[in-house]
Design brief:
4 strands, alpha+beta, about 30% helix, Glutaredoxin
Length: about 110
């Protein structure tokens, strides 16, 4: 997710008024520990206590063991509606960023001057 953080403004129209939420079955404590020193322009959520039901409520899928797919992503558009979900976001795969960019770009205008 650090690659996404570092390229956020240039790749995703600065994601103006868009909320990108990474959600996993990691505990809040585990996520907090990992994020403590990072400055991410998006949020992370733990679905550990809900056994994946929170992500499923947003339209995301579950693995066979009823847990959230690793590094699932939810994108909320400026209108407050779910713009898209990515069931398994692989931060090492450039195609994952293209898929995320398509969702974000679909609901955000390109900044003026581009």
């Amino acid at each position: 997710m650090t690659a996404y953080r570092d390229q956020y403004a240039s790749l995703f129209n600065a994601g103006q008024n868009v909320v990108v939420m990474g959600i996993s079955n990691d505990s809040a404590e585990e996520l907090g520990s990992w994020l403590h020193d990072a400055d991410f322009p998006f949020v992370f959520a733990s679905d550990a206590e809900n056994e994946g039901r929170t992500f499923a409520a947003f339209g995301g899928g579950l693995r066979d063991n009823n847990s959230v797919d690793s590094r699932a992503v939810i994108v909320v558009g400026p209108d407050g509606r779910i713009a898209g979900t990515i069931a398994a976001f692989n931060q090492n795969d450039p195609m994952a960023y293209e898929e995320l960019a398509e969702i974000v770009d679909r609901v955000t205008p390109e900044p003026e001057g581009n």
